Amino acid sequence: MLPELKIQQLRYVITVVEEGSFHGASRRLHRTQPAISMAVRELEHRLGQNLFERGVQNRLTPFGEYCLPRFRDLVSQHDRTAKDVVSQADGQEGHIHIATVPSVASRIMPSFLAEFIDRFPGLNISLHDENAHYVCQMVAHGEVDLGITSLWQSDEELEYTHLFEDKVGVVCRHDHAFAEKQALDWQSLQGEKLIRNGTSRLLMGTAATELVENSAFYISNMISLIAMLEAGAGITTLPRLAFPEHSANLRFIPLSDPIVVRKIGLVKAANRTLSPAAQAMQAFVLEKLRYKEG
Amino acid sequence: MLPELKIQQLRYVITVVEEGSFHGASRRLHRTQPAISMAVRELEHRLGQNLFERGVQNRLTPFGEYCLPRFRDLVSQHDRTAKDVVSQADGQEGHIHIATVPSVASRIMPSFLAEFIDRFPGLNISLHDENAHYVCQMVAHGEVDLGITSLWQSDEELEYTHLFEDKVGVVCRHDHAFAEKQALDWQSLQGEKLIRNGTSRLLMGTAATELVENSAFYISNMISLIAMLEAGAGITTLPRLAFPEHSANLRFIPLSDPIVVRKIGLVKAANRTLSPAAQAMQAFVLEKLRYKEG
DNA sequence: ATTGAGTGATAAGAAAGGCTTATCAGGTGG
DNA sequence: CCACCTGATAAGCCTTTCTTATCACTCAAT
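Above: the input entities. Below: the structure tokens describing the complete assembly.
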């Protein structure tokens, strides 16, 4: 019942008015004059009314005067929509929600995001830090677009792309006997008071398993853990990234036997397409963080 | 640079979302399923991003979620524009400015316009009454769309369509010697005190010319003229339509020799296209008023 | 008056788009 | 396991849209 107003036809009409002639419009639109002429006539025919006075001079009819501002509005909304949609599609604009484990959030993301927002100034980023389990859950539930974390457990809903490995070492106070060592093996740790933390499960299934099983303390909160270590209450194991590097009193000694690593990777929901902005972030993450040693 | 978003494609996308499937959309849009499929793919390809998740289920991608409300807005503005433009084109809506001489305005227009607005309820009408000269001028200057008037003088800018003739007669008080006559000729008027008015020029160039030339009074204002006649200050000539028919004291006697008529017609600007609403009015005027005796 | 450069309209044919029919492939429920 | 749903794909047709070539008209300068 309603005729379709093709954006292009409306643009032709507007340009003819602006240029004051069909020829002028045809030059500006890179079309031949008959193309404009026929398109305008077709529209007029479909509306049942002429838009331009024919014969003497090509000015608008009263009906054309009525239509012109409406046509302009429609075309300008079209252009605005197209621009918005395209810049969204290009990843020039948009929102990204990303979640990482705290160590990555504090050690990797600051400089990484600085570089990212420099390259994509139109993007709006929200960074959440949570433990590995919850990061995966947020990704699976669609609360964030991407996660950078170690994989909690293999999950069909999640797609994991490996980025780098983070070697586990021993953390002790500077006055501990281990403090000056270059490396340690698990046997050396026997008899030490080992405090477990959220990352200790990495040692399970390795030669060091029994160390963990014999440990009597567990502290999940990192701040509390650091305080305990600084108080000389014991030692712990941490991936290097999780070791607070500015700590004056604590030392990190690599564990050489067994070599235990935390695998850090990019996680996304398997059957969900990323927003264009998140795709840009994904590509940037892969370009900048893949295969680097943490 | 900007891709053109074709209204139809956007409508396809919206319908697919609303129906929840390509097949459903194709049924509602009276198209085959491949038509929808290909159109959507073409749009996705042009935007460089998918709108729908392919494979498992056809729900929107995040990008699609972003686009959908914008597409809806654009399509709905398109539909509003198309509706407005069409109802304007059909003459279902719009403004008409019309000017007539006072006699037509008061004797013809009331019932005529009542019927017109009944037939075209969406139209908005402004009626001006002015003397014949000014009516023509308003039409020529585009201040009104149409005039109903006698033609002041032939004018290339004006297009005149004859409607009816208005016979001139003699107007006198009920106690005047002429009051009971059925007709009068110009010789009978000699010696009477004739008051000229704006319509007296109609007699110029007829056998009654000298009557007018010998008249000493001229009154342009109709109210004053009536008052003078009712006071018995003289007689005048008027076209029948201009005679105040409800006057108790005045009588109208047709002039039989010479028979003088005021030609009333529809006047429009020659090289201006009428608005659709005014076209409807024009057609209605020609249908209702042409060839009627006034 | 004539001519030349401007305007828009028109016709015929080529190119591009959009639609349909026919068919395939994947997933789901009896 | 098969019928039936979904969407994708290919070939061909038909419509739309564009270009080229040409005409008719107006206006201004010669």
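Note for the figure: Residues 8, 31-32, 34-35, 38-39, 42, 55-56 of chain B lie near DNA strand C (CB under 10 Å from a C1').
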